[in-house]
């Protein structure tokens, strides 16, 4: 069998093993086919929530609404503005969610060496 010609790095990275063990070259379109691209972040719509839920949200976060406008519209606007203004750290939310699921709604407590009293 004659020696194989040397391949550059891009050709080597494009060669992949499939399940049968044979080597295949994939085009750039095939590689992009498996990528998940987020076009935009899903937008929170407070209009879809029931009024009882909005009132609970208002009580928990102590939101103030305008007195002279209709109560439902003002409540929806206040909740929408407050929710959009909240800074969210995705990593912390994922850790807290996994901890809560695993430990059945117990409170998540993180202690660092300098915080232990």
From TrEMBL:
| Top-level taxon of the source organism | Eukaryota
Gene Ontology CC terms, in alphabetical order: nucleus
UniProt region (Disordered), positions on chain: 1-29
Domain Histone deacetylase complex subunit SAP30 Sin3 binding, residue spans:
49-102
InterPro entries cross-referenced by the UniProt entry:
His_deAcase_SAP30/SAP30L, SAP30_C_sf, SAP30_Sin3-bd
The primary location reported for this protein is nucleus
Query: Which terms are listed as keywords in the entry?
Result: Nucleus, Repressor, Transcription, Transcription regulation
Q: Where in the cell is it found?
A: Nucleus
UniProt protein name: Histone deacetylase complex subunit SAP30 Sin3 binding domain-containing protein
Name the species this protein comes from: Pneumocystis murina (strain B123)
Taxonomic classification: Eukaryota, Fungi, Dikarya, Ascomycota, Taphrinomycotina
